[in-house]
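Researcher: I'm preparing a figure for a lab meeting and need a structural model of a single chain. I don't have an experimental structure, so a prediction will have to do for now. The sequence is pasted below. Please return the structure as tokens so I can convert it later.
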Amino acid sequence: MATHFLLLPIGRDFSLRDIDGMTETRAHALFARCRWGSETEQVCPECGTVASHYWIKSRKQWRCREVACGRMFSVTSGTVFADHKLPLRTILHGILLFVSNVKGISALAMSRYLGVAYSTAFVLVHKIREAVTHEQEQKNKDHQLGGLVHVDGAHVSGRIRKPRVKKKASKTQARDRIPADAHAFHPNRRIVMVLREVSKTPGVGAVRTVVQVVRAENSPTARALAQKYISKNATVMTDEHPAYGEYMARYQHLTVNHSVEFSTDEGVNNNHAESFFARMRRMVIGQAHRVTPKYMYEYMSEVAWREDKRRHSPMSQSRDILKWASKVGPEASSWRGTGKASDDRTKCCSSLEENLAEKACREPVTTCHRLVRRPCEGALGRLRRRGPSCLWGGTMNPPCFHRARGRGA
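Model: Understood. Here is the structure written out token by token.
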């Protein structure tokens, strides 16, 4: 039997002991190599000039050689880690902890390991998560899934809490206290759709993963995702959910009846999609404990990234994060809790969510102090006059920090 990847020497080619033995200068050099591929040449984030720019040792910054530019920049300028206050070694510690915990790590655990405040760890973890989300999006942007593709959906979040007083066991026990005219599902309930391309080499498994967060596992959703992400000559394996009935007209569509078997005698299954959900459930149960639509797409993209990188070494994964963190840019703001609404952040085709813009303007956002409406049309003028602090209930701290305190996330 083959040895598991995590038991091989390559699975521990980068450890906390290696970072502890680094000086801040060596950590700085590692950031430069991962960003620019060289320690001697840099790319000015302002004018794009590639050269050995003037090094200012006292500030650990460069000044652009172009006279017309002359911008001062550091190794993290223009990246998601721009304007950081943590030492580079501490950021490296956080990245390594992120990649080493194969089922994820909570911000609370990260704060204990790094010895920083919870809000600091929260921002760091979400910045790393945003970098891997960007990598997943760019990787699947121009190339559709081909060959053999497994597709499935799973319910996430929005579980109805059981009543205080136990009742006789029944299939509707958790819904007994819901009025008959109420919606059957919790507002936070979402469907995570996963599409996984399987390698042609036996034993390798899935090599590319696409994940989307949608409201329902139905035919319009399945059709739009397939048209966007699956090539026409692919073979698609799903269960017998009616949402995938239209695949028969476009692809070679094979199904398995899960009420009877997990895999047919001919080998038809969607086990690679189920493998994704297995890791996702372990992360939600053991680390996050609760995932709401606000950051659900980022969490699911993290699981997809971990699945695709499951046989990459810790050093390779850390380098990838540093590389893609430089491409996200400091303007990315979803980790601040000031991004779009949860429904706006379901990265699905616009045709599936035609009423998002209208709904985003209509639904209030709960902040730590009061309810404010989303910035839309007439509200824009008031927001400009009152300043951005009105979005956060009169405080300049992002609301996610206030909501997070005292919670074992």
